[in-house]
Design goal:
Its main location: cytoplasm. Force generating protein of respiratory cilia. Produces force towards the minus ends of microtubules. Dynein has ATPase activity. Pfam families: Dynein_light. There is one protein chain. This protein is 35% helix and 23% strand. By secondary structure, the protein is α+β, with helices and mostly antiparallel strands. The chain has one domain (21-103): 2-Layer Sandwich (Protein Inhibitor Of Neuronal Nitric Oxide Synthase). Helix 2 packs antiparallel against helix 3 (50-65). It is globular and about 45 Å long.
C-alpha cells in the first residue's frame, strides 16, 4: 500500500516462480525430495520438449521406486487419477509448468 504513488504498475506485474511449488503430495519426505529434484532437472534439460521430460522422469522413477509410475508434464490441463496411497506428487515449476507423478499398479 505504501507504493501507491507509482500508478497502476503494481497490478501489471507478473510473478514467475522459479522454485517448485508443491500443490499436493502424500509421498514420504525422501521420495518427495528425490521426485522434485528429478522433475526440475528433467524440465530444465528438456524445456522445449515436455514429452521427453516426462519420459525421463517416468523411467527414473520406475528404476528407483518400482514400476507402474505415470507422469504428465505440461501447461493448462486438468486431471483425475486413481493412485496407490503415498505415491502422488503434483507440483508447479517455472510459473505455469505443472508436473503430476503417480503410481498405479
Amino acid at each position: 500500500m505504501a507504493d501507491e504513488g507509482e500508478g497502476g504498475k503494481e497490478g501489471e506485474k507478473k510473478i514467475l516462480y522459479v522454485y517448485p511449488l508443491v500443490k499436493h503430495s502424500d509421498m514420504n519426505e525422501e521420495m518427495r525430495t528425490e521426485a522434485i529434484e528429478l522433475s526440475i532437472t528433467a524440465c530444465e534439460k528438456y524445456s522445449s520438449n515436455y514429452e521427453q521430460a516426462a519420459k525421463i522422469i517416468k523411467e527414473t522413477m520406475d528404476k528407483k521406486f518400482g514400476i507402474f509410475w505415470h507422469v504428465v508434464v505440461g501447461e493448462g490441463f486438468g486431471f483425475e487419477v486413481s493412485y496407490e496411497t503415498e505415491n502422488i506428487l503434483y507440483l508447479f515449476f517455472a510459473g505455469n509448468l505443472a508436473i503430476v507423478l503417480w503410481k498405479c499398479s
